[in-house]
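REQUEST FORM: STRUCTURE PREDICTION
Request ID: SP-0412
Submitted by: Lab K.M.
Chain count: 1
Length (residues): 147
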Amino acid sequence: MKTTTDGSGDVRLTGIGKKYGSFTAVHPLDLTVPQGSFFALLGASGCGKTTTLRMIAGLEEPTSGTVHLGDQDVTGLPPYKRPVNTVFQSYALFPHLDIFENVAFGLRRRGVKSVKKQVEEMLELVQLGEQARKKPHQLSGGQQQRV
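STATUS: Completed
RESULT:
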């Protein structure tokens, strides 16, 4: 991207949104991040921060809206044709195990025989009790971090 001060290097999201079936992960959003600025995207766990970043990077297809990088609409471009970089967080979760079993894994490795009560208590403590039987990919980044 060229370096200018006229807005032609901005990241501009217009009506960008994402749904998974009936679940709305990102409500339509308008946002402009000026070129060269330092920007923080903050919000509660599961509010759509990571999904929004994935849409900018082209790793997730928006249900609505457009992504502009500079004066180019990149909404339909694949990730490798977008001048952006993404660094993912890794929580070292076992993708084939559900959340309960991911938490139980360490206890079982230490030889703890009955893990049910401890795992349930810990999941409730971090507000993930209802997510116990989901797989890691079904959780938001913040929820994965709590596991």
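NOTES: The longest helix spans residues 99-109.
Reviewed by: T.R.
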